[in-house]
Design brief:
By secondary structure, the chain is α+β, with helices and mostly antiparallel strands. Strand 2 and strand 3 form a beta hairpin. The termini are far apart. The model has no long low-confidence stretch (mean pLDDT 86).
Length: 142
């Protein structure tokens, strides 16, 4: 009679324990990398919506309003066109509620918005005055 070779229960438990340990060590950095990516995507989307609102305002010869709230940014360039951009879970608006009015010429008032991240970063968004409606994003580590 030939006996089949197999793993014992204790060998299986050891292998599963080591595999679980490696898996749990990889979850933390993976979550952090995903959260960092979500913040980068948020600021990319913010830039795209910011310029799209600006250009629609110039093309349609209308006034646009950008509301920066505690949990979202609302882009409104007409009564029927609103776009809402919500913050990622790791990002918090620290400057309070702000309203930006983009004139028909594309000009607006300068200001600074501050966003703090649970990842240890502080983002300062400096809105610049005048035609072109530019802003500059400055990243500081806490």
């Amino acid at each position: 009679m030939c006996r089949a070779k197999a793993f014992t229960l204790s060998e299986m438990v050891i292998v599963l324990f080591i595999s679980g340990l490696f898996f749990s060590l990889g979850i933390g950095p993976g979550k952090r990398a995903l959260a960092n990516l979500n913040e980068q995507m948020f600021f990319r989307d913010l830039r795209q919506l910011w310029f799209a609102t600006f250009y629609r305002c110039i093309q349609n010869n209308t006034v646009a309003i950008i509301y920066v709230e505690d949990d979202k940014i609302i882009f409104s360039d007409s009564a029927d066109h609103k776009t809402i951009l919500t913050y990622p879970k790791t990002l918090h608006h620290a400057s309070g509620v702000s309203t930006y009015i983009i004139q028909k010429t594309g000009s607006m008032r300068p200001d600074t918005e501050e966003f703090s991240s649970t990842l240890g970063k502080v983002y300062d968004m400096h809105v610049q005055l005048g035609y072109g409606m530019q802003y500059r994003l400055e990243v500081k580590n806490e």
